[in-house]
Each structure stands twice: as C-alpha cells, then as structure tokens.
Design goal:
The chain is built from ten helices and ten strands. The chain is of the alpha/beta class and 325 residues long. It has two domains: 153 residues, D-Maltodextrin-Binding Protein, domain 2; 100 residues, D-Maltodextrin-Binding Protein, domain 2. Strands 1, 2, 3, 4, 5, 6, 7, 8, 9 and 10 form a ten-stranded mixed beta sheet that branches.
Length: 325
Amino acid sequence: MFRRRSLLAAPLLPLATPAFAQSAGDWPNRPVRVIIPWPPGGSTDVLARIVCEQLTAKLGQPFVLENRPGASGNIGMEAIARAAPDGYTQGPATVANLSIAQFLYARLPFDPEKDFSVISMHWELPNVLVAPAQYTPPNTMQEFIAWAKSRPNGVSFGSPGVGTTAHLCGSQFCDRQKIDGQHVPFRGAAQIIPAMLSGDLTFAIDNLASYMPVIAEGRMKAYAVTSAGRWPTLPSVPTMAEAGVPDFVVTSWCTWAAPAGVPRPIIDKVNAAMREVAADPEVQKKFERTGARCVWSTPEDATAHAARQRPMFQEMVRISGARME
C-alpha cells in the first residue's frame, strides 16, 4: 500500500524544457484542464471529481474536467501526452494506461514510460470475486471453485472490456483453478450486474467500487478481494490468499499525471496539494464510500510502482490471449 512518504528511489522525471522552465510561484494563474480518459459516472471520473474540487480549493484556480473516453482510455491519454508541458493539462492515468496497454495493443499513440510526468498515486481499490446470490449456492471460495468445475457447460465471467483488470483476473483465475471459463466483455459494470442478476452470467472479478451497493443489499455474494489485506469497507470478506487462492494480489490503481517535461516545481506543487488531500479524513470517507482509498506518493514512487507492475500484467495478458489493434 502507498504511504504518505517516499517508499523507494526511482529515476527522476524528465527535466523541464527551456521553453517552460519556470518556478511554480505564479502557477496556476488560469484554469487547469483535467482530461478524464474514461466516460462520466465511472469510478475514475467520480474520484477525479473529488480530487479536482480539493485541488481547486488548495491551488486557487478551477480544475476543469473534460471527459475524453474511447479506445480503453487511449484517446484521453494521447491528449494528455500531446499537450503543452506547462502544467495546465493534467489527468488520471490508470493501471490500464500505464502498465497494461503496451502489452495489449499492437500500437499505442503514446509511450507509457516516456510521455508522462507522473505526479502522485491517486487512488487504489481491489477487485472482488462476486456472483449472484440467487443462482450461486456456494458460500466459500473453495466451494465456489468446486461448483464451477462441476458445471457441465463451464462458467462465464464478465468484464468491462478486453484487457481490463477484470478480464485479466478472470482469465488468470480460471487458468489456475482449471475452470472452463468463458470471458464475456461488456461496456461496464452497469451492464455486467444485470446480466449476473438475471442468471445469464456466472461471476466477475471486477472493481469493488461498482459492486458495493449490490453486495450490501445481499444480491451478490462476495467471495474474496484481490488486495493484500482485507479491505476496510468489506472487513468480513477474505483476501484471495485467505480464501485458498495464493499469489493473487491484483489491485486497480490510478496516478495523477501530466505531459512529460512539466517543470519540477509545478509537479512538486501539485504533489504537495495531493498529499494534503490524501491526509484529509473527510476525503478518505468519500473515497471509502465508493470502495476506494485515496493514496499519495512521491512522483518517483508512482513511476516505480507502474514499472514494477508491468511484468505481472504482461504475463496476465499472455494467459488471457487478449490482443487489440
């Protein structure tokens, strides 16, 4: 988990280009554009809005959101990467953008390792293995695995799209447990949940934030979370390891990023503000209500975290067989 201090050393962010070499003393003196590479209403959008409200208050200029969805976040990320490195374009960059996309796509319009100034970690949340209570008799993970293996026509698992952590987790789970599982991609949890509740889909290992309400209502059984420890908002639900599925720590996470080359004083100014945001108990409560945790890190730690995760996701993409053009 990320702490409110430096965790490890990592290469420094790209140096400022002479055209934008400046102190952060007069920044920002106009609104900051925040590009959200995902549609309105999703967890990335909702959590970015909370942070933007805080950054607006702390830095004295509006942080104005602009949704640029499409191509699994690649359209919005390209817009951030191609913007002027003056600090006036920023946005959330998720695990899908920084640690998965390069193994999934034959071509990308940006380089995840070179085209961004990563400012801080932003949020983290686990995936949760859920199944509809009405159609799923098992009450424990091991019972669920045995039940899934016994299904004559196998099982199906949903995800918000090819190459998402939900897709990769479902594929890896079925591969390791020798379950005959069929991936069914949807546009998002808003379509996955009704499919499960109607009995048309067996299970999902998807972002916890999307499933908190139906779990609380008892309409979904939560068998395990994919975080290293139990999650605060679901303390009675075991981790995958506790449930008998070892070596399955996979979280969804998001950084706050800008184009490569933004002057370091500006990076540090935003980073300091985000540290204050993550330390605010009221902000943490807002994040926890969505199933996430607001986190902070140094720019170097965030960059290193994305790099450490790449080999794991490269292997998960290989197992899934996913490939996008």
